[in-house]
Write a structure and sequence with these properties.
By secondary structure, the protein is of the alpha+beta class. Helices cover 30% and strands 33% of the residues. The chain contains 2 helices and 5 strands; from the N terminus they run βααββββ. The protein has a 5-stranded mixed sheet with strand order 1-5-4-3-2.
Length: 79
């Protein structure tokens, strides 16, 4: 049975950040988003909030997962 992955969606702020990225930056971001979708708890929790931060290969993503971890909402992207 294939592993279940979370659906990744973007807050409008993150959507604006995505629009400004070059193709090679988007390719690096895809790898990070794949890791988060495969395991929503991969990022470290930020303080007393539902937000998590995940960094890999100079890509930083701040996100939160729904209660069941089936949907990821990306709040901030830095590449």
């Amino acid at each position: 049975m294939p592993e279940r992955r979370a659906l990744v969606t973007f807050h409008e702020t993150a959507e604006r950040q995505l629009a400004a990225l070059a193709a090679d930056d988007l390719a690096r971001l895809d790898v990070v988003l794949d890791a988060i979708a495969a395991d929503p708890e991969v990022g470290r929790p930020l303080a007393d909030s539902p937000l998590r931060e995940y960094e890999q290969d100079s890509v930083r993503v701040i996100y939160y997962a729904t209660t069941l971890g089936t949907i990821i909402v990306v709040a901030y992207v830095e590449v």
